[in-house]
Structure formats: structure tokens, C-alpha cells
Amino acid sequence: MTEKSEQDERRRRNAAWRASERVLWRPTSDGRIGERLAALAADAGSVHDLDEDVDVYGDGVVAELERRVAALLGFPEAAFFPTGTMAQQVALRCWAGRTGNRTVALHPLAHPEQHERGALGAVSGLRTVHPTHEPRLPTADEIRALDEPFGTLMLELPLRDAGFVLPSWDELVEVVEAAREVDAVVHFDGARLWECAPHFGRGLDEIAGLADSVYVSFYKSLGGLSGAVLVGPESLVEEARAWRHRYGGQLFQQYPTALAALLGLERELPRLPSYVAHARVVAEGLRAGFEAASVPWFRVHPEVPHTHEFQVWLPYEAELLTEASVRLAGETGVTLFRRWWTPASGGPPGVSVTEVTVSTPGLTWTGEDVGAAVAGFVERVRGV
Asked: Which of 316, 297, 324 is nearest to 380 (CA)?
């Protein structure tokens, strides 16, 4: 397929999904430029005084966002970054200098290993070790069993590529304690930390307080434009700001991004517990629907979602499943799934996976609604 035909196919799929009247969630990437700008202009005044001067190199509304996140997570200081990848690399680099050990212990499915093109080593000169290859975060015993020293333990909460999975609260505490036993610091990749509170039954500040530093994202769960914040001790964040400048992240003005992030904290953050609760209704509806449709094999993972996002696995080729998703949307106005793919972590041939998110539009779906959508989807899978 040529580059032009790939672009045309992507537009066809996105048009069908965007036009759907019933969806479980609408990613912000579905929006058009004019719509997003108009919505931001209309709503931003509810979270910040728009008569203030625009920010310049991180002051004004950007500094206000930093203060807000630091307070939410219970840390003394915070620094805004244009991307989470940059924020996390800077944090791990700073900790390596402080601990004297450039080795980072993390899961092989963690974001730096799967989605950053080896940047920890190529850009920051760090190396990684893997306490476990199981599709879950490491246990305390696995941390203690590592046969070489490491300076930082990085935990991705939740571990997205394993199915947005989380440990129990007691397991998380034990893992952190095990890292402390070997004089390592703990950093949380909290890109999706916002939706972890219902699973742990703890406030965000108590969860984040287990770690020495945490990074959070604004566009993944809060509907922001982009951007991330790193929180930690004052001296660490001060050093991180210096590295942010060296990495090219000291941007002249960022007020649209900061305003969108503040709106997400104000509007989406309080809704996340309801999304998490309803994701369990949707997951059960999917299981019942696949069983009723006599699908030969399927997996909803985790069986009870830990957050408002989870995986679905089916024994068909990814292109076929994606096409069935597009046809369901185009013919019925219902989007149940979007793109499917062959898992990078492996699996039997002919098995594909997708991710399901539940947000405001999905709260109106009953289990029966989900089952009916599954029936329509499976009918199109068999007809492609």
C-alpha cells in the first residue's frame, strides 16, 4: 500500500468513527482544529483569568498548573514538560546522577522500552534491567532477586501494554519497600496515574507519595492537548528544569496546553471513578456478547478492569477486525472498537488485540447495549 493510499484509508476509517452517534469514548484526536480552539476559548475562563498576560518561558498559567499538580500529588515542587517522554527521561537521568548508578529497573513492556526508540540509552546513557517478564508489574521478591544493583526502580502505573494492569495496594507498598532495601529510588511513570485511585482505594497524594518522583500526563485521560508534569523534591525539580532546557523543552509560550490541562483537572479528573466503575459493566457486556455470538475464543483482559481502559483479544487478523469495526460504525452509527493490531509482545499467530476506553459517552451504555453491538460486530467479522 502506497503512502497516499494509507492516508486515504486512515481518513476513511476516522470519518466512520467520528460520525458515529454511539461510542464508548471519543479520543481528542477525533476533533477538528476549529472545534477544539472554539471549545478551549469558551471554557478556559472557568479555570483561569484570561485577562492575565500570556506565559513566557514557563511563568503565568504554566506556573499555576505546576502549583496545582504539586498540591494534588503532595509534592513540594513540579515542572511542566512538553512531553512525558522528555519528563521521564530527565527524571531518570537526574536520579542516575544522584545515586551514582545509571541502571534503571523496569518492566520490558514499559513505555521507555516499547515506545521511545531506545532513548534512555541513546540520549541519556542509561541502561535497563528487567525484574520480570510476566505481564504484570514486578513483585517484591523479584526486586530482591535481581542479581545486579540498580539506582532507580521505575514503575508504570498502570502497565498499559500488559492490559492497563495494577498490583494491589499492599503489593505496591511491598515493591517500593524492596527497592528501598537496596538503596534505590522509586520513580512512577504516572501517565495514567489519574485513574488508579479507585483500584487502590487511596487518594492520588497517598499513591504518589510512595515514590520519590512521579510524572503525569494531561492528554491521555484528561482530554488535554499535550504536556506533562514531573513532581519531586525541590532540588530534583530544579535540576530537571536545567535538563529540560538542554533537551529543548523550554518553550516560549504554552498557554493553550496549560489551559487545556487545567480544564482536564477541573472536569475530567472528578469523573474518572465513574468511568472506572462503568468499564466493569462494559467488560461484562463484552464477555456475554462474545459468548452469545459463539465466538470460538476471546479474552477481555483484565477480567475485571483495573482502570477505565482494558484489552480485548480475538482470534482473527487485525485488518479484518479493524474493517469490521469500520463497517459497524458506517452502517449503524455505533463504534464499539477502533483499530486492532498484532501485539508487539507476541502471541499465537492470527490473534489480535485492541484497547477499550470508557468515558462520558459510554456511561449511557447498558450491558445489553454492549451485547447488541457485539452481535453486530461479529456479524461483520464473519462477513468481511
From this structure: 324
Pairing relationship of beta strands 22-23 and 334-335 according to DSSP bridges: parallel
Determine the Cα–Cα distance for residues 357 and 343; give it in Å rounded to an integer: 18
Cell of 16: 466512520
Closest CA to 75 of 180, 189, 212, 169: 212
Average pLDDT, the chain: 96
Q: What is the mean pLDDT of residues 69-95?
A: 98
Question: Which parts of the chain are beta strand (E)?
Answer: 22-23, 77-81, 103-105, 127-129, 152-156, 185-190, 213-217, 228-232, 299-301, 309-314, 334-335, 352-357
**Is residue 189 very low, low, confident or very high in pLDDT (cuts 50, 70, 90)?**
very high
Tell me the whole-structure pTM to 2 decimals.
0.96
At a CB cut-off of 8 Å and minimum separation 6, what does 42 contact? none
Phi, psi of 220 (to 5 degrees): -75, -50
* Grid coordinates given for 198: 479507585
By the 8 A CB rule, do 130 and 108 touch?
yes
